[in-house]
């Protein structure tokens, strides 16, 4: 019960504070650690082994630092649990681009979107910008919200020397996610060096992605009176229509709930790719869809919190 209270406070802090740009977010320090270790390890010839060492050291150091932060103070645990969540920051990023679109400044909208996505934005129209925003929000609903919640609640059942592992588990997940975003690419530089980091990220997101797409997002759609039946239908039909083994699950549920179609022709680094489609094209993308997607993000985050609280109580009674 004490952990549930602390985590609920952390969740509320995220909804209120988000991720202020002036604040030195812990993920930035994880990123600096990865950069430092990469400089030390990349020089060696066996990239798969040294890349594995990078992943193990980054996750291990993050876990240990988080453990001692919890040991120092319950207030530090609450604060750093808050930093693992990204509901408001995801919403703020979407709203920022949406606001520029409403003002009619397409060039600025493209520049703002370029901070959020790796795809080329220069030649995008309004439809493509809106689609990109919604795909980003739907995918990151797992990485930025549901997965950190999942690992925090799993960690809350374990202790070392009386110290809860909720924060070390959640922050360890953020380290995994950051590793994947920095070195988990299938290009010449990272195909071997980032292989283990990418594999660990796939494994870490396996359960959260399926919980999000198969239950949490459709339930959020139900509460918002969106098309929750289509959210489930498209989830089961199209969740594997993605190059990632996990990203398609949340995208499929979002697409079904909003009545839109993700995927299709997309440009990355100057090359066009025909991505498999996800969802039925029941309507064209429009600026109001961004606000609908953000509402679904917020309500899904609340459903996620409620779901893990209920599950933790039930498991606590059983064990």
Automatic annotation (TrEMBL):
Keywords: Cell membrane, Cobalamin biosynthesis, Membrane, Transmembrane, Transmembrane helix
Membrane spanning residue stretches: 49-70, 145-167, 296-318
Functional pathway: Cofactor biosynthesis; adenosylcobalamin biosynthesis
Location of the protein in the cell: Cell membrane
Predominant location category: membrane
Record's bilayer topology term: Multi-pass membrane protein
Record-linked Pfam families: CobD_Cbib (PF03186)
InterPro entries, alphabetized: Cobalamin_biosynth_CobD/CbiB
Domain of life from the UniProt record: Bacteria
Family the UniProt entry places it in: Belongs to the CobD/CbiB family.
Function comment: Converts cobyric acid to cobinamide by the addition of aminopropanol on the F carboxylic group.
HAMAP family recorded: CobD_CbiB
Name listed for the protein in its UniProt record: Cobalamin biosynthesis protein CobD
Encoding gene (name): cobD
